[in-house]
From TrEMBL:
This is Phosphopantetheine-binding protein. It comes from the Bacteria. Residues 1-72 form the Carrier domain. Transmembrane segments: none annotated. SUPFAM superfamilies: ACP-like (SSF47336). The lineage of its organism: Bacteria, Bacillati, Actinomycetota, Actinomycetes, Streptosporangiales.
Length: 73
């Protein structure tokens, strides 16, 4: 799941998954609120509930992967 999240974010910003440091601020890399909402919606369609406000509050892959791990437990 975490790789899928990284791949989705990479597609949004036009990078490869390996190019995105876990602690990079994704907003600075080009992930806006609309892209975050689309990502949340896409994950919900896969049965994973992520909280948009939690993602927006700490927009790094490390934080998002933590939220993802919690959501799938």
């Amino acid at each position: 799941m975490e790789n899928t999240l990284r791949e989705n974010v990479a597609a949004i910003i036009g990078a490869t998954p390996e190019e995105i440091p876990g602690d990079a601020n994704l907003v600075y890399l080009g992930v806006g609120s609309l892209e975050m909402m689309r990502l949340v919606t896409k994950m919900r369609r896969q049965g994973i509930t992520l909280d948009f406000s939690a993602l927006a509050a700490d927009p790094t892959l490390d934080a998002w992967e933590g939220h993802l791990r919690e959501a799938v437990q």
